[in-house]
Predict the 3D structure of the following.
Amino acid sequence: MDRRHLLSLMGAGLGIGVAGPALAAGDEKPAAAVVNLQGVGLPVIADGRVRNYVFVSIRLHLSGSASMEAVRAKDAHFRDALVKAAHRTPFTLARDWSQLDAVALSRSLMASAARIAGQGKISRVEVLHQAPRRRTGIPTA
């Protein structure tokens, strides 16, 4: 453990504001800003019928030019775009009704993010968690 890291740990324990190793070294990048969207329930549609609902938690990774407060204020717009896209072209997996296609979901939200937050403000969309309403989600052949 180097001296700067030890001093930052001691300063944190005493309530003293000492610059941590990321600020002192200067060669490390600060942590990227992220915004977690509120959970949203998306339908699993197969054969024209709603078979299940999956509640997803999503994290938006912001680019350097994005303001966290501005993106967080548009949380409802992101969730609305996601629900509309899920009804228009479902993210249903053919083999499992208890999960959604995370790649298609991310791709759809990235396309909507350019319109909602502005071009280049969102660098990546990550699906954190999927919780199905019904656990038995295997379609019968």
Q: What stands out?
A: Strands lie at 34-36, 40-46, 49-62, 92-93, 96-100, 122-132. Residues 102-116 form the longest helix (15 residues). The helical segments are 3-14, 21-25, 68-73, 75-88, 102-116.
